UniProtKB/TrEMBL annotation:
Alphabetical keyword list: Ion transport, Signal, Transport, Zinc, Zinc transport
InterPro entries: Bact_metal-bind_prot9 (IPR050492), ZnuA-like (IPR006127)
Transmembrane segments: none
Superkingdom of source: Bacteria
Protein name (record): High-affinity zinc uptake system protein ZnuA
Keyword Ion transport: yes
Signal peptide as annotated in the record: 1-21
Family: Belongs to the bacterial solute-binding protein 9 family.
Keyword Zinc: yes
Molecular function via GO: metal ion binding
Length: 303
């Protein structure tokens, strides 16, 4: 009898429980799909830009976060899956991240190619390399090294984010305005600090700096090799050793080149490092500002 009574009470309680839960406001939450946007950027500078715009209102992943060169990066299976599933992919272009060209063609969602955005400022100067690989280009893909080019990218990203995720549009707009004003202020500071250094010359490891060099009218005499991974021709190195007005030689952060080191030694000038991908910087503004500090360290020295 006791067992029968227990079962009756149990059945009655189960029948009444939904009403009880509704009256007390206690209920089991129903899982809902996440609405936080996912953005993938190819390289660290674009990742720093995107993170500043979205703040906590999107997830930003950087494909080549730890790679010192985007020219020869190898995609993993996970990378390919993430590229296909991300809400937005932001990259520079196939002049820099050649490996992304094919997988990005397979995407159904938005892709922003920074090099193709209207409003990007391109250097007027043309860089030349004479040797086994004859090179001539006025489209250096390192567009983020001109602070004002980043404003064009910010606007393109902001427009797409606001269309796709209007619930966060005000936050994105606020963050974008803050970042753009910071870049304008940085540009003004650099115009001032670089002005006394415009007659002093230097050599860089590879042609990554024309956007910064032209913006602030610096005197880059030459570069050593087309990409950090390429060997340097003996004839080209011989010509570089004939330069007499060099204040310093710059190599890229994280990349060791015996040829670059030897050239600095032969010219009896300091060998310094530049960090165009911002491995030492937590923000995009810090990245560009640090570049200015490194140039100043070389060119302002009295020798």
């Amino acid at each position: 009898m006791n067992v029968r009574r227990f079962l009756l009470w149990l059945l009655l309680f189960m029948a009444l429980f939904p009403a009880f839960a509704e009256q007390t406001g206690v209920s089991t939450p129903i899982p809902v799909a996440a609405t936080t946007p996912t953005i993938i950027t190819s390289i660290r500078p674009l990742g720093l830009l995107a993170k500043a715009v979205v703040g906590q209102y999107a997830k930003v992943d950087i494909l080549m976060e730890t790679s010192f060169s985007a020219h020869h990066y190898s995609l993993t299976v996970s990378d390919r899956q993430n590229i296909l599933s991300a809400d937005i992919v932001l990259w520079v272009g196939d002049a820099l991240e050649t490996v992304l060209k094919k997988p990005l063609h397979q995407r159904q969602k938005t892709t922003i190619q920074a090099m193709k955005l209207s409003g990007i400022t391109w250097p007027d100067r043309q860089e030349h390399h004479h040797g086994p690989d004859e090179y001539h280009s006025d489209h250096d893909p390192h567009i983020w090294l001109n602070p004002l080019n980043n404003i064009v990218v910010i606007d393109a990203l902001l427009k797409q984010l606001s269309l796709d995720f209007p619930q966060y549009a005000d936050m994105y707009q606020h963050n974008a305005n803050t970042l753009k004003q910071g870049l304008v202020n940085l540009d003004k500071r650099l115009q001032h600090t670089m002005l006394p250094l415009q007659e002093r010359s230097f050599i860089v490891a590879h042609p990554a700096y024309s956007h910064f060099v032209e913006r602030y009218n610096l005197q880059q005499l030459a570069y050593i090799t087309l990409t950090p991974e390429r060997m340097v021709g003996a004839r080209h190195l011989y010509r570089l050793r004939q330069q007499s007005r060099v204040r310093c030689v710059f190599q890229d952060y994280g990349i060791q080149s015996p040829s670059v080191k030897k050239l600095a030694k032969d010219l009896s000038v300091p060998l310094l490092r530049l960090d165009p991908l911002g491995f030492k910087s937590a923000t995009l503004i810090q990245l560009i500002e640090q570049l200015g500090i490194d140039f100043h360290h070389c060119l302002a020295e009295t020798r």
